[in-house]
Design a protein that fits this description.
Elements: E1 6-10, H1 18-22, H2 44-52, E2 62-64, E3 66-70, E4 76-80, E5 83-85, H3 96-104, E6 112-115, E7 128-129, H4 135-153, E8 157-163, H5 165-173, E9 177-187, H6 194-198, H7 203-216, E10 222-226, H8 233-251, H9 258-268, E11 272-279, E12 282-291, E13 295-303, H10 310-326, E14 330-335, E15 346-356, H11 359-385
Parallel strand pairs: 6-8, 13-14
Antiparallel strand pairs: 1-3, 2-5, 3-4, 4-7, 5-6, 8-15, 9-14, 9-15, 10-11, 11-12, 12-13
Helix pairs in contact: 2-9, 4-5, 7-10
């Protein structure tokens, strides 16, 4: 490889030192910048906890194959978090149809290489580069290196999901296929508080949300924000019960183990926000969020009691309150969900990039993606026109 650089695969995140990983831009608060804000899902603490807790392992179909770019002396200067996968679960970018079609035609779709944060539909850098190196050159080297790894492994494909828009061109120039999808994000336009945000909405929408928030807290329900030292093992026991109850009904088998929460609590508690709902002296519901450099990332929620509008209050309204209090620019409230639109979350386009080794499969997928991108653009435009904002004050995706 040019400049005496080399690509190496590391199967265990525990074998990568936290110090060397934290030099990669955006993986720690110290290595972050306005151009590459801190992303907690890319931290060594989060990624190592997924593996060490048994949540993302070869046994669960997430076999670590992290792509590392190193100097001749073995210094880590670039990376792509990646996993060799035997299924397409826990990804939030769905390619089951691609797999079925290829295997019906006699191909072998699995294993595939998935470059992503397991179980986490949040956009963030995927071509990680250490500060002090030419970012554009190193990203191109990583994109090409990922292709070479795919060919050497003899597998069908490499999929890079929830890619930031500023990395799309790098992958396109390396001959990856571009896929788009839709999420709903809240953008902080400098609002002083939630009431200031509500004033930008159409009168009918504003009244409806105020009524919704009041109704959510009926029956004596109160809300607590827990972070840092608030996150005791007892609190995690309660939250995990919510997660298992709701996740079991929604997904069939929740992805994350109980030990995962203990690990992230000990390693990155100040990056975590639990929004917990209490009634009659006990917690009955909660949502976990992660605090980035400029974004609050909502992940999953659970409950052991059903109350009208409580899900919206805990997951969406409280997230906006916290983001405004902390001066964060954005709330990303997870995958999909047109119901978020009425609550001030507007449609944004998400991106993924796909290297397909088989020419026939690549052509078929390319044709499909051309049509899909047009559909996503059309739906985003339609939904934006039906946002709750007053005309002339509608938020824009930045």
């Amino acid at each position: 490889m040019a400049g005496n650089l080399s690509i190496r695969i590391e199967q265990s995140f525990a074998a990568i030192s936290p110090e060397s990983w934290s030099r990669l831009a955006g993986t720690s608060r110290e290595s972050s910048s306005a151009a590459v804000p801190y992303n907690p899902f890319l931290s060594h603490a989060f990624l190592s906890s997924l593996e060490q807790s048994g949540s993302a392992t070869a046994k669960t179909g997430w076999h670590g194959h992290h792509v590392l770019l190193e100097t001749e002396e073995g210094m880590l200067i670039g990376a792509i978090p990646a996993y060799l996968k035997s299924h397409s679960q826990g990804e939030y970018v769905f390619d089951h149809g691609w797999a079925d079609a290829f295997e019906r035609a006699g191909g072998r779709y699995y294993p595939k290489l998935q470059c992503a944060i397991p179980f986490t539909p949040a956009t963030g850098p995927r071509l990680l580069v250490a500060s002090g190196y030419d970012r554009e050159t190193m990203q191109a080297t990583l994109a090409a290196g990922l292709q070479e790894v795919t060919r050497q492994l003899g597998i069908s494909s490499a999929h890079v999901t929830f890619v930031p828009e500023n990395e799309v061109e790098v992958f396109e120039e390396a001959d990856y296929l571009h896929r788009t999808d839709q999420q709903f994000h809240f953008i902080n336009e400098g609002y002083a508080d939630h009431d200031a945000f509500l004033e930008t909405l159409a009168s009918r929408k504003r009244k409806a949300l105020k009524k919704e928030r009041r109704a959510a807290l009926e029956n004596g329900i109160s809300i607590d924000w827990l972070t840092g030292s608030d996150l005791t093992e007892d609190i995690w026991d309660q939250f995990f019960a919510f997660y298992m109850d709701t996740g079991g009904r929604k997904w069939g088998r929740p992805y994350l183990t109980r030990s995962f929460y203990s690990m992230i609590s000990s390693r990155m508690a100040d990056d975590i926000l639990l929004v917990m709902a209490k009634r009659d002296g006990r917690y009955i519901a909660g949502a976990i969020n992660f605090i980035g450099g400029d974004t609050l990332y909502g992940r999953h929620w659970g409950c052991i009691e059903d109350h009208p509008f409580l899900h919206f209050e805990v997951c969406y309204h409280q997230a906006i309150d916290f983001a405004l209090a902390r001066g964060l620019k954005r709330v990303e409230a997870g995958a999909q969900g047109e119901h978020k639109l009425a609550r001030g979350y507007l449609p944004v386009t998400t991106h993924s990039m796909h290297y397909i080794a088989h020419p026939g499969l690549r052509r078929a997928i390319s044709d499909y993606l051309d049509r899909e991108r047009q559909e996503v653009d059309g739906m985003n435009e339609y939904l934006s026109e039906h946002s709750p904002f007053r005309k002339g004050e509608r938020q824009q995706d930045d």
